[in-house]
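Shall we go through a protein fold together, starting from nothing but its sequence? Label the sequence line and the structure token line clearly, so we can match residues to local backbone shapes. Would you write everything just below, so we can both look at the same thing?
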Amino acid sequence: MRIGIFLFAMSAMASQLASAGRGIYPTKWQMMTRPMSVKADDTKLLYYGGSVIGNARVFTVFWGNTVDSDLQKNIGPFYAAVVASPVMDWLNQYNTSVTAVDGRQGTNQTIGRGSYGGEFVIQPTNTATALDDKDIHVELEAQINKHVLPTPDANTLFMIHFPSNISITIDNMKSCAQFCAYHFSYQSTTYGPVYYGVMPDFKTGPCSFACGFSNNAFDITTAVSTHELAEAVTDPIPTPGDKPAYPQAWNTSNGQEIGDLCTYGNITLQTPDRTYALSALWDNSTGTCKSGPMGN
């Protein structure tokens, strides 16, 4: 049957995803085909000695002028709300004043509320519609050097949103085929580590199908953005594979991050203006996924 072939293909993709790392947010098909049996250390986050982002300063980056106009209007207030909310207070259980699993001393950082730095529309030098992750490194560096983007520091997180005609590849995986979004970093010789999230368009095109966890494209965007933001804060330098080690920060023993142990939805952030859909996140203190409303 065709469905058998389809699920086999998706299972193979899930295996590739599991070994990839990189803070990848899976498609709904990978979520369906995840293994059901886990080891004890696969259901809690362990500290591997790396840095976290203590007080995230988020900057929204729109890749060109054709990013969805509704998204451009609404995503900034979302980021501003979430980084100044109890979501960030709750993440302080992942502070780093602890000893790592390999015995190294932690970085003695405290995670707290952050700030929002605004939106930036870049005119990419690279006009290709099929990008590799390394192309994003090059473009970010160029835009920072031209002072289109602010100079990053240890708290800077660029959340990059793309138009629907752009596809992104990382580790031979393609956006909306093998993943919905990811966070990552690169080491700049000028600025040190540069942290960023890659957010395809979920309103139209292949992502609207592969990542359609709800009927509301903006809810999908805020949920996936929360997932990547929280993972960037608690593990800003993800590495490939399923065997985490320094310089990673908080992971399970098989390389999953704070959002990977949970499925889409069931947290909301209530602000005076609207209610935002968030992604569920792993709570080490209770051994469950955090759920329910989180008000400002």
